[in-house]
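Memo to structure team: turn this sequence into structure tokens by end of day. - J.P.
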Amino acid sequence: MSMPDDLKTPETTAAENDELFEMANLYPRTTGLPMTVWVSPRGNARHDVRIKVNKTHGNQMNIDNTAVVAVRPAPRIVEGQLSSDDERAVSEWIRLNEAAVIAYWNGDIDTVQLAQALKPLPSA
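Reply from structure team:
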């Protein structure tokens, strides 16, 4: 999703920073997933609803180590890679929380309302 540094202009770097600022960081204790995910409002995006998923388990917040997962029409990886177990868990979490993630994307709810609406994956 990010472009090589040598192709970035001050405008693209500012847009990426704005995108990061708007994202809600969701840790494993909130989601029931083994890794941190980021959910964001649409902003100026030209694509449909997506979330970013940290490839490393734990409370990691390394945006450069992510996979991008589309929400609609069904969860699917659009950039990067996840293990099959992680992909399955993320897809299940998206299906469980699709309405809240889409409402946040559309600007119908704020971050506090998103956090209140999210359901964690059931414990394995």
